[in-house]
Specification:
569 residues; Jelly Rolls; Lipoxygenase-1; single chain; mainly beta
């Protein structure tokens, strides 16, 4: 039995080059036609052949995005050779047409090649206050960190989001936060894993208060030593310019662009942190962040060679349970400075409990917000091997009488072989109180999990979507030349196998006239031995014109038939 879907392609348009090895030629360009003045955004799908965030000296390619010839943001291709969509802001644009280009900045790039496969510009709604005030973050250049433009290979800003709340006067307070791949200074790796549940760095970096009309009332940024200072720097429209100025990613206001670090990140900030959740949930919503942080740990030698849950050194992050806890603490009397009662979690595997703080009181969780943590487990431990989870109080100093209400474990998962988060198997809600008289409590036991079948069905699908028609442009009479053009096809197949074929080959025609040389077509892939979803096939066209070929004025064209078929539906 053969199932097939047929689409037609008309050879008609040629895209600008998508690969470049120098900055003088754009890798790609696209036009934004803005129907109103507002904040522009860009989804940029790129890859960097030869790049790998885990390999020193090959970490990334460094791109520059320009709008109408003006540089607006840089992009570090931290995902290496795999196509990845980087979401950036472009700033305020006027109504009308705008030219957006992307170039490779070879002077700053660890690797000298990048491929742009898609550019999707968009325009935020005219009343989008979050986009209007989104800050622009200048990259880090510190003398104590080797190399210039250091974010191309360490502590790269990878994600931004915002929170929004009303103040006592009814004004709106918007706070913007950045996630970096790591922090070279500040909190050490064991503390990051125990107290924060990750080795990325997450810092708020700008806060603005606006009135009901969206006008700025006050604003501030996170300064050095985690201070808060009123912003007193340069703005582009309403966007403040802020520069990372410490190895733990604290900042200063940019007061003169000429003396800035010379590169910047204008990240899309439209995502909002869900209420009553730890900041790390934004990583959960962007699961690729876990693999990226793990690669940086390996490259920087922060992973122990022989995993051991009893050491403070971090092991392969796939050995950890990632959890999120929520609690509230009160004291009979305020404890002396430096004293507090924290909480740690423990997981039981076999007959042993493994703890998040590894027996170090200062690595327990102090804050009373939803907080992420991790527990290192023996190599090969699966969720099915974890029989129970408990919380226990950890006095630091002399906190006196305390009461800690533990109210939820919002999630618990392990990373898979690909460093992607697995399905959360922990979700406990209730209220258990820890006191000096009751220092620990079991929150979850595996035997209480009721298994139930769940599934779904997949309809038979065989889908072929073609890209824009390809064009050879203008043929030049009397000159021997082989012209090339390209497009693509996206293949979706739920079948056991599939094949792609091209029909209708022959000669391009112009009325009664046809070209002497036949049209040539090539496919980057034409067969599949398993189901696929949106597998992109590059389609190449070539047409030879000889010096003595007679060419008739007008358009030469031909309709080809692309057939996707299967023998095992």
């Amino acid at each position: 039995m053969i199932r097939q879907i047929v689409s037609a392609a008309f050879v008609a348009a040629l895209l600008a080059p998508a690969v470049a090895q120098a900055q003088d030629q754009p890798l790609a360009r696209v036009e934004l036609n803005a129907d109103h003045a507002g904040e522009a955004k860009l989804a940029l799908t790129a890859s960097a052949p030869g790049a790998d965030w885990q390999l020193a000296g090959k970490e990334s390619a460094f791109l520059e995005v320009q709008v109408d010839g003006k540089p607006v943001t840089n992009v570090v291709t931290f995902n290496g050779p795999g196509p990845f969509t980087y979401e950036v802001a472009l700033g305020r644009v006027s109504a009308g047409k705008h030219d957006i280009t992307v170039t490779l900045d070879a002077a700053k790039s660890p690797v000298d090649e990048a491929v742009i496969s898609k550019l999707e510009p968009s325009l935020a709604p005219a009343d989008d206050i979050v986009a209007r005030y989104a800050p622009i973050l200048y990259g880090r250049n510190l003398p104590e960190v080797p190399g210039a433009f250091e974010n191309v290979n360490t502590d790269v800003p990878i994600l931004a989001y915002h929170t929004s709340a009303a103040d006592a006067q009814g004004n709106r307070v918007i706070e913007y936060t950045v996630i970096w791949s790591n922090e070279d200074g500040g909190t050490n790796t064991p503390s990051l894993m125990a107290r924060w549940g990750r080795t990325t760095d997450i810092e708020w970096f700008y806060r603005v208060t606006v009135d009901a009309q969206g006008n700025r009332i006050t604003d501030a940024f996170q300064a050095l030593n985690h201070g808060t200072e009123a912003f007193n720097g340069v703005r582009e429209d309403d966007h403040p310019l802020i520069q990372v100025a410490s190895s733990n990613n604290n900042m200063v206001a940019v007061t003169d662009v000429a003396t800035s670090s010379g590169y910047r990140f204008f990240l899309e900030t439209g995502d909002r942190l869900p209420d009553n959740r730890a900041r790390e949930v934004m990583m959960d919503q962007n699961p690729w962040t876990y693999g990226l942080m793990a690669k940086e740990m390996v490259r920087e030698g922060k992973v122990e060679t022989v995993p051991d849950p009893d050491t403070q050194t971090m092991s392969d992050q796939r050995n950890y349970l990632f959890a999120e806890l929520k609690k509230a603490t009160s004291y009979a009397t305020a404890p002396p400075a430096g004293s507090w009662a924290g909480v740690a979690l423990a997981a039981k595997v076999g007959d042993r409990w493994y703890t998040s703080n590894k027996g170090v009181a200062g690595l327990s969780i102090e804050r009373d917000l939803a907080a992420a943590t991790t527990i290192e487990l023996p190599v090969g431990t699966t969720p099915a091997n974890i029989s129970a989870i408990k919380a226990f109080a950890v006095p630091n100093g002399t906190p006196g009488a305390y009461s800690i209400d533990v109210t939820s474990i919002n999630r618990g998962f392990k990373l898979g072989a690909d460093f992607m988060p697995g399905v959360s198997f922990l979700n406990w809600k209730g209220k258990e109180t820890l006191t000096p008289a009751r220092t620990e409590v079991i929150l979850w036991e595996n035997e209480n999990v009721v298994e139930a079948p769940v599934g779904g069905s997949v309809p038979a699908t065989l889908s072929l979507t073609l890209g824009a028609p390809a064009s050879f442009g203008a043929f030049t009479p009397g000159v021997e030349k082989t012209y090339t053009a390209s497009t693509y096809a996206d293949v979706v197949s739920t079948a056991g196998d599939a094949s792609l074929a091209v029909g209708g080959l022959g000669h391009l025609t112009n009325g009664a006239f046809s070209l002497p040389e036949p049209l040539q077509v090539s496919l980057s892939k034409s067969s599949w031995a398993a189901p696929v979803s949106n597998d992109r096939v590059a389609i190449g066209f070539s047409q030879k014109i000889n010096a003595n070929d007679a060419l008739r004025t007008g358009s030469y064209a031909k309709t080809l038939t692309f057939t996707l078929s299967t023998t095992t539906p």
